[in-house]
Design brief:
Layout lengths: L2 E2 L58 E2 L2 E2 L6 E5 L5 H13 L2 E4 L10 H14 L17 E7 L7 H10 L7 E8 L7 H8 L4 E2 L3 E4 L7 H8 L2
Helix pairs in contact: 1-5
Length: about 230
């Protein structure tokens, strides 16, 4: 049975978090987990740069996708991560902002092999046949700020993030989107232009772009960015 990476119990009348304890289920609750399973994933070893392999399950071979939802947060971190670097940055942002957090997953995870992933991603982009998401998107009306994270793929947004924006862009109108990005030295590419096109009525904040090898040492940059 997989361990949860990050989960939280959101109760209608109160929020109860106790390290190492399991909270009783309700219709609107999610399972809690122990502190050892919620440690920042930036402490783990990640492959970086071109050719980096993944676990073949978009970071979820040994742990369930990250999902922390509460009733009173006004910000949420939403991200996709194949190899874990974007996930590490997302966790730092969540901890600094105290936002909710949601990991985007796809019905057919990307291959562990880098070149196979590149081939598939290029085909998805060229045909505009983007992948089906396998995550339940919460009601986004609650949030005023969306921290949206994606790796750079082919100098553009990753395919799963593109799917998310195509399907939920209307719900982001009038909200502040703070885009963050990891890459192998390419920067954000055309990602910001894509965001402006897919969510034209959102307020786009200055982006945070980190080279993947720099992510483990980016805490001060994250703090400055979140609190600007």
């Amino acid at each position: 049975m997989k361990l949860k990476k990050q989960t939280i119990v959101a109760l209608t009348s109160f929020l109860f978090i106790l390290t190492g304890c399991q909270t009783g289920n309700t219709e609107d609750s999610e399972t809690s987990n122990t502190n050892e399973n919620t440690q920042t994933s930036a402490t783990r070893q990640r492959q970086t740069g071109r050719g980096a392999e993944s676990d073949g399950q978009d970071t979820n071979a040994d742990a369930d996708p990250t999902r922390i939802l509460t009733e009173d947060a006004d910000a949420i971190v939403i991200y996709f991560s194949r190899g874990g670097n974007t996930e590490d940055l997302a966790n730092m942002i969540q901890q600094e902002s105290n936002a909710d957090i949601l990991e985007l997953t796809v019905a057919d995870p990307y291959p562990a092999d880098y070149e196979e992933t590149v081939e598939r991603a290029n085909q998805e982009r060229e045909t505009e046949n983007y992948p089906e998401l396998s995550v339940e998107i919460p009601d986004l009306n609650q949030y005023q700020t969306i921290y949206l994270g994606s790796p750079t793929w082919g100098m553009s947004l990753s395919s799963p993030v593109t799917t998310f924006l195509q399907e939920n862009g209307g719900a982001l109108s009038g909200k502040t989107i703070a885009f963050f990005n990891t890459n192998a030295g390419y920067g954000v590419g055309s990602s910001e232009d894509q965001l402006a096109e897919l969510v034209p009525d959102a307020n786009l904040r200055a982006s945070l772009s980190m080279e993947d090898v720099e992510v483990p040492d980016s805490q001060s940059a994250v703090e400055a960015w979140v609190n600007q």
